[in-house]
């Protein structure tokens, strides 16, 4: 079984590999007050017992917890603007993300989100759209019409830091274009497959026009950081309740004012 440590470790070396990247590669606002945003990372919602799948009941419990404690789910664009010092958001903002574009994101997670009047963001592997157990084009468009937001998870889901020169650039450009053609809107966000990136990856993402990149590094997104290497909080099958995960990270609603 994949452990939290193993999942995060898969991308941990990329933090060191990219540590020398210039901050010009991503929006970064210098200000007295630092904005911090929790970004949750889900993968699948269903009956399976693997590490990356949480049960339908558990996902309902997570959304109930967020609703009951005053969290407000936001879109990728709202998250970017919030961290960039834009208009303050009501309540306690939180960004829900799903990686890979599994069909159960549409069949299981999407209806639950709607029942709580919540939104989430889905990072799609464009080369797998419409394949078995993957979201198809009409479903993507339906979710977008309902207020969900989307980002790139590349074309093939290969670890970008391990690819030959030029391949990461092609993966990033093609997936961005594919999603823009499908959804009829700009795609400004990418989540790195397996949390894999390096300095060349960040340069390629910047050159392709991405405004923010999401990693698998555990922690909260911070307005003082490079927006192309934002932290997230992975949620696993074997985790205790979301309230426990959030409190353990020091993100108690009472601390948010």
Global shape: globular
Question: CATH homologous superfamily?
Answer: Glycoside hydrolase/deacetylase
Number of strands: 12
In what range is the share of β-strand residues? Answer: 15-25%
What does this protein structure show overall?
The chain is an alpha/beta fold. It has one domain: TIM Barrel, CATH 3.20.20.370. It has helices at 4-17, 56-68, 76-83, 103-115, 137-145, 167-183, 199-208, 242-248; strands spanning 36-37, 39-42, 44-45, 53-54, 71-73, 92-100, 121-124, 149-152, 189-191, 212-218, 221-222, 230-234. Strands 2, 5, 6, 7, 8, 9, 10 and 12 form an eight-stranded parallel β-sheet that branches. Helix 2 packs parallel to helix 4 (103-115) and helix 6 (167-183) runs parallel beside helix 7 (199-208). The longest helix is centred in the last third of the chain and has 17 residues, at 167-183. The radius of gyration is 17 Å and the shape is globular. The N and C termini lie far apart (38 Å).
Task: Offer a quick outline of the entry.
The chain has helices at residues 4-17, 56-68, 76-83, 103-115, 137-145, 167-183, 199-208, 242-248; strands at 36-37, 39-42, 44-45, 53-54, 71-73, 92-100, 121-124, 149-152, 189-191, 212-218, 221-222, 230-234. It is of the alpha/beta class. The protein has one domain: Glycoside hydrolase/deacetylase (TIM Barrel).
List the helices and strands and how they pair.
Layout: H1 4-17, E1 36-37, E2 39-42, E3 44-45, E4 53-54, H2 56-68, E5 71-73, H3 76-83, E6 92-100, H4 103-115, E7 121-124, H5 137-145, E8 149-152, H6 167-183, E9 189-191, H7 199-208, E10 212-218, E11 221-222, E12 230-234, H8 242-248
């Amino acid at each position: 079984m994949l452990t939290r440590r193993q999942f995060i470790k898969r991308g941990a070396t990329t933090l060191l590999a990219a540590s020398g990247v210039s901050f010009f590669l991503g929006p970064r606002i210098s200000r007295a007050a630092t904005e911090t945003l929790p970004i949750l990372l889900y993968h699948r919602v269903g009956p399976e017992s693997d590490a990356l799948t949480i049960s339908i009941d558990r996902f309902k419990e997570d959304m109930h917890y967020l609703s009951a404690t005053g969290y407000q789910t936001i879109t990728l664009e709202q998250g970017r603007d919030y961290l960039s010092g834009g208009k303050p958001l009501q309540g306690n903002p939180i960004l829900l993300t799903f990686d890979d574009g599994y069909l159960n994101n549409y069949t299981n997670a999407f209806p639950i989100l709607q029942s709580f009047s919540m939104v989430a963001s889905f990072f799609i592997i464009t080369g797998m759209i419409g394949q078995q157990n993957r979201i198809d084009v009409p479903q993507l468009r339906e979710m977008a019409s309902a207020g969900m937001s989307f980002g790139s998870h590349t074309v093939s889901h290969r670890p970008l830091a391990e690819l030959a020169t030029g391949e990461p650039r092609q993966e990033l450009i093609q997936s961005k274009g594919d999603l823009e053609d499908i959804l009829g809107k700009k795609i400004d966000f990418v989540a790195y497959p397996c949390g894999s990136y390096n300095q060349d990856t960040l340069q390629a993402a910047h050159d392709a026009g991405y405004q923010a990149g999401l990693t698998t590094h555990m922690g909260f997104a911070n307005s003082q950081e490079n927006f192309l290497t934002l932290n997230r909080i992975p949620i696993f099958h074997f985790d205790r309740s979301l309230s426990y995960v959030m409190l353990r990270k020091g993100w108690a609603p009472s601390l948010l004012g």
